[in-house]
TrEMBL record, chain A:
This is 3-methyl-2-oxobutanoate dehydrogenase (2-methylpropanoyl-transferring). It holds the Pfam family Transket_pyr. Residues 9-184 form the Transketolase-like pyrimidine-binding domain. It comes from Streptomyces djakartensis. SUPFAM superfamilies: Thiamin diphosphate-binding fold (THDP-binding), TK C-terminal domain-like. CDD domains: TPP_PYR_E1-PDHc-beta_like (cd07036).
TrEMBL record, chain B:
Its cofactor is thiamine diphosphate. Gene3D superfamilies: 3.40.50.970. The keyword Oxidoreductase applies. The keyword Oxidoreductase applies. Keywords: Oxidoreductase, Pyruvate, Thiamine pyrophosphate. CDD domains: TPP_E1_PDC_ADC_BCADC. This is Pyruvate dehydrogenase E1 component subunit alpha. InterPro entries: Alpha-ketoacid_DH_E1_comp, DH_E1, PdhA/BkdA, THDP-binding. Residues 1-23, 363-383 are annotated as: Disordered. Residues 63-327 form the Dehydrogenase E1 component domain.
Length: 334, 383
């Protein structure tokens, strides 16, 4: 019996592989965006696709995000399955009208006659030293729009599985790629990729008994690190990786919080009007009698994304997470 | 041959070698809007086509009047009329083959009906019982589009996809003069030209974007001139001359189908009615101006031509009127029935499968409806 060597792969490589496998499996899958062809994308996620599948399947478009997504709508109307790359989080804003007025609601407007199976890939979040407009956490805007699925991977294996699931979905999916995890490595066998998880399932990334850190995307490794550091304080923290913001996995989240009795939501997005408010409300509504303390939020400040030399003060880090855990009314225990 | 090969790579070259990659002159619109009726070109027009256009125009005028009346009676929430613009509306539908696609704006229900969609289904949006009342795939008509010009990139994408699949399909997209100021107009035309997509853009320049006249909308020589900047031909046509609109659009459709790429057509017409029933046009234009356009009415123009050529007599006019009345009577009858609404439909087509969150909200509404109906909610208690 031979065993295939499991080599370390990066998240970017897993995403490339997911696109390639999806394109090979279904001729309706078309990749389009700025610089995705010859260059292979500014993050190289579409590397080699134009060469392998031709420029009609992996297309360098004019530099116009509303036009990219708007034409993708028409392509989906005609039976194609476009995968659109928005180059950066903040460069996706010109496409908002197409996304909100058409992509998200075409199925509903037409009573299910015209679903739009479009995947919109958006590199998001900070921590890469990007100058302004290159580090936004835009998930709250997408979450607030009915009709969209919003997913974000935190591991190499999930990057592959979630992207395949997104492309296979008959609904539009905003696929948020944590930029600073593009080069994160993990042992992952590209020849035997993990089965594709359905969109909408969270996962316990690290089991624990003292409190639950609810998080997603770029903040997952930070929370795992915080959980390791918390052992020194005597806390055994559970980390729940949401993976899917819409639909939201109340079941997994609440099962964890009911076990631990305490929760902190962690994300880079600002806290006012951010995902944490919704998550805290959902947890409180469902787990009130299990909670030993209010659900706290550790988030980016409510400021425009800072310049790169200041971003470390903005991003939720281990210390800020542990401070929040310390405020979970442990005195009631003694 | 790729578009790049057709047109040259247009890479930066240091002067003096630099030059534009094509001569823009062939793309320029004519100085005058193209006309057929009342000109020498009319003699060449197919009598059957003219008769068919006439029947459609008369029906279209009656449709506009009926829909306006239904709005006054409270049967429609709102109606943006195309009275005076019927030539553009019916010609846009008539130039397309069955396999082609029409991309209407919210004002273009007449074109949608002329394409074969049931008038009641076409007016569903404006009655307010749902958004799109028809199956877009059945007649290959995209949903009526309210956000201005946002349907134009859809037409480009669909036409591009059809060509990639090897299908012989053309998309015709409709927009108004106000819509040409939107960014999506620019992006759609640019994509269409770069991809050489088989699309025809029909701009009905009816003089007003609600109240704002064209002079405040653009400084371009004409809207058709905008085509040149994208590297596609622009055509200017008298939008009230049904034969001319039909000919120009047919040429553009043929050009697109043959692989010649997109065309921008500007049809000069006039919105005789207010923007909608909710608008008061006397606040921004004089009645005398409206009257001058009544003399250039699309039905009158065609009727004059047909009568002069002995192609239309009183019997013919009566037959057209009777057919229009029958359509109006049927529309009245159907629209005077209250639509059957099921509030639970709110949740059916948000996603392929409702999310757990929507399932909860659906149950909440179901309980509210049951309480409203006086029935005990299942389980006996509210959530």
């Amino acid at each position: 019996m031979t065993t295939v060597a499991v080599k370390p792969a990066t998240m970017a490589q897993a995403l490339t592989r997911a696109l390639r496998d999806a394109m090979a499996a279904d001729p309706a899958v078309h990749v389009m965006g700025e610089d995705v062809g010859t260059l292979g994308g500014v993050f190289r996620v579409t590397d080699g696709l134009a060469k392998e599948f031709g420029e009609d399947r992996c297309t360098d478009t004019p530099l116009a995000e509303a036009g990219i997504l708007g034409t993708a709508v028409g392509m989906a109307m005609y039976g194609l399955r476009p995968v659109v790359e928005m180059q950066f989080d903040a460069f996706a804003y010109p496409a908002f009208e197409q996304l909100i007025s058409h992509v998200s609601r075409m199925r509903n407007r037409t009573r299910g006659k015209m679903p739009l199976p479009i995947t919109v890939r958006v590199p998001y979040g900070g921590g890469i030293g990007g100058v302004e407009h290159h580090s936004d956490s835009s998930e709250a805007y997408y979450m607030a729009t009915p009709g969209l699925h919003v997913v974000t991977p935190a591991t190499v294996a999930d990057a592959y599985g979630l992207l395949r699931a997104s492309i296979a979905s008959d609904d539009p999916v905003v696929f948020l790629e944590p930029k600073r995890l593009y080069w994160s490595k993990d042992s992952w066998n590209p020849e035997e990729p993990a089965p594709v998880d359905p969109i909408g399932r969270a996962v316990v990334r690290r089991p624990g008994r003292s409190a639950t850190l609810i998080t997603y995307g770029p903040s997952v490794p930070v929370c795992v690190e915080a959980a390791e550091a918390a052992r020194a304080e005597g806390w055994d923290l559970e980390v729940v990786d949401l993976r899917s913001l819409v639909p939201f996995d109340d079941e997994t989240v609440c099962a964890s919080v009911r076990r631990t009795g305490r929760a902190v939501v962690v994300h880079e997005s600002g806290s006012f009007g951010g995902p944490g408010g919704e998550i805290a409300a959902r947890v409180t509504e469902r787990c009130f009698h299990h909670l030993e303390a209010p659900v706290l939020r550790v988030a980016g400040f409510d400021v425009p994304y800072p310049p790169p030399m200041l971003e470390r003060h903005h991003l939720p880090g281990v210390d800020r997470i542990l401070d929040a855990v310390g405020r979970l009314q442990w005195e009631a225990e003694s | 041959m790729t578009v790049m090969e057709q047109r040259g790579a247009y890479r930066p070259t240091p002067p003096p070698a630099w030059q534009p990659r094509m001569d823009p002159a062939p793309l320029l619109p004519d100085a005058e809007p193209y006309r057929v009726l009342g000109t020498e070109a009319a003699a060449k027009a197919d009598p059957e086509l003219l008769r068919a256009l006439y029947a459609q125009l008369v029906k279209g005028r009656r449709y506009n009047a009926q829909a306006t009346a239904l709005t006054k009676q409270g049967r429609l929430a709102v109606y943006p009329s195309t009275t005076g613009q019927e030539a553009c509306e019916v010609a846009a539908a008539m130039v397309l083959e069955e396999r082609d696609w029409l991309f209407p704006s919210y004002r273009d229900t007449l074109a949608v009906v002329a394409r074969g969609v049931d008038p009641v289904e076409a007016l569903t949006l404006l009655r307010g019982d749902w958004h799109t009342g028809y199956d877009p795939h059945e007649h290959r008509v995209a949903p009526l589009c309210t956000p201005l010009a946002t349907q134009l990139p859809h037409a480009v994408g669909l036409a591009h996809a059809a060509r990639l699949k090897g299908d012989d399909v053309v998309a015709l997209a409709m927009v108004g003069d106000g819509g040409t100021s939107e960014g999506d107009f620019h992006e759609a035309l640019n994509f269409a030209a770069v991809w050489q997509a088989p699309v025809v853009f029909l701009v009905q320049n009816n003089g007003f974007a609600i109240s704002v006249p064209l002079a405040k909308q653009t400084a371009a020589p004409s809207l058709a001139h905008k085509a040149v900047g994208y590297g596609m031909p622009g055509r200017l046509v008298d939008g009230n001359d049904a034969a001319a609109v039909h000919e120009v659009l047919s040429d553009a459709v043929r050009h697109a189908r043959a692989g010649g790429g997109p065309t921008l057509v500007e049809a000069i017409t006039y919105r005789v009615d207010a923007h909608t029933n909710a608008d008061d046009a006397t606040r921004y234009r004089a009645d005398a101006e409206v009257e001058t356009w009544r003399e250039h009415d699309p039905i009158e123009l065609l009727e004059r031509e047909l009568t002069a050529r002995g192609l239309l007599d009183e019997d013919g006019k009566r037959a057209a009127r009777d057919a229009a009345e029958a359509m109006a009577a049927s529309l009245r009858e159907h629209m005077n029935q209250d639509p059957v609404l099921d509030p639970m439909d709110l949740f059916t087509d948000v996603y392929a499968e409702p999310t757990p969150q929507l399932r909860e909200q659906r149950e909440q509404l179901r309980a509210e409806l049951e309480a409203e109906a006086g029935a005990e909610p299942e389980g006996g208690t509210h959530r």
